[in-house]
Predict the 3D structure of the following.
Amino acid sequence: MNKNDWNAVLRDRPAFDVKGMREELEGPAPIRAFAALGGVAMCLASALGMLNVIKVVFNPVAYLLHLYLIAFGMSVIAIEGKTLGENSWKMFVYRWLPFTTVVGGKGLMYAFFGLLGLAYGFQDFLLFAAGCYMVAVGVVYCLIHTAKFESLNEKYAKSQYVTRSSMYY
C-alpha cells in the first residue's frame, strides 16, 4: 500500500466522537443524578452515625466503617458530579479505580458501597436506607451496562467493517 492509499483510509474513516462516547460510557444524566444523591445520603447518614462519640470507645471498627462510607460517598459525588469539573478527588478516583469510568464498574462499586451500608442492619436505619438505595442504583447501572455493551459492540463492529472495507478500494 502506498502513501495515497493510507491517506484515503484515514480520510474515509468515520470520525470518532470522543465526547459522545464518554457520555455514553458514563450513563444517562438522570441516573447519574440519582447516584450523586445516593452519595450525599451515604455521607450524611455516616456523619450522623459518627455523632455518637461513645462508639469510638466501644465499637471503633464501626466508627472506622463510617469514615470509609463518608469517603465512598464523596467518591460517588466526585464521579457523578459533572459540573464539579476536573477536581483532584475525581482524578484520584479515576487513576486508582479505572473501572469507575464505565457504567458496569460504577454499578458494581455502588452496589458494594450499598452493601457496606446494609452491614449495619437496623442498628442505623438511615444508613440502612441509604445502603438499600445505593444497591438499587448499582443494579440499575449494571442493567444499563449490559444494554450498552451490546450496542457498543455493534457500533465497534460496524466501524471495523467500514474501516477494513475502505482499505481495499
Summary: The helical segments are 3-12, 18-26, 29-50, 54-58, 60-80, 88-96, 103-118, 125-167. The chain has a mean pLDDT of 79. Residues 31-166 form one domain.
